[in-house]
Amino acid sequence: MTITAGKVHDVSMGRTLKLPKQSIVVFDRGYTDYTWYNSLNDKGIFFVTRQKSNATYTVTARRPVSNPQGLTCDQTITIKGSKARDCPVPLRRIGYRDPETGKHYVFLTNNFKLAAKTIADIYKARWQIELFFKWVKQNLKIKTFLGTSKNAVLTQIWVALCMYLLLAYIKFCSRLSISFQQTLRLLQLNLFERRDLMCLLKGDPPVPTNLHLQTQLQFS
Question: Residue 208: how many CA atoms within 13 Å on its side-chain side?
Fold first, then answer.
C-alpha cells in the first residue's frame, strides 16, 4: 500500500509498479495513460481497464460476441488524435452490459487471447477493492480522523489496515463462514473478557470462573 497526498495522481504510483512478465493488472479510469499502456505492452504485461467516454479511436476489426452473456462488442481498435503517438499498438475494446444492473461498460485491454467474457469478469473482480475500502471506512473508524497532522492521519490509516489484516488472519484460521463484520462485533463485545479466541468465534460457552480458577490451581 502507498499513501500520498490528494494532489498526487493515481497513475503516478501505477508507473512505479514492478510487475513480472505475463501479469494481468486491472485498474479503473483514474489510471488512464496511453504512454503507460504502451509501456506495459512492451514489457509483456497485460492490462484491463475501462475506456473513457471521450476517447477517440478507429475500429480495425470486429469479432462475434455472445449476447446472452451480456457482451455487446469485441473489437480491435487503434487510438487516434493527439494520443495516437502515445499508444501506437492495437488495443482490444470489449462492450459488456451487466445483467443485474443493466449498466453498460466498455473495457480496454491488450490481451487478445482470453475470451471477451473472461476480460469482463477480470474487471468485475476489481470491485472487491471498492468493497474493501467501503468496509474499512464503515467499520474501522477511518471516515473521520482523530488528528489533523500528517503523522496522525497516517497512523490512523495504518492502524485500521493492520486491524483488517488481523481480522482476515483470524477468519482464515477459524475456517468459519462468519463475515468480517460478525467477527469484529464479537471481538468488540468481548473486549474485556478473557476467552479463547477460537472458542468465542465458534460459539462455545465460556468456562465458569470457579472451574477456570480450579484448573489454574491444578497446574500451578
Answer: 3
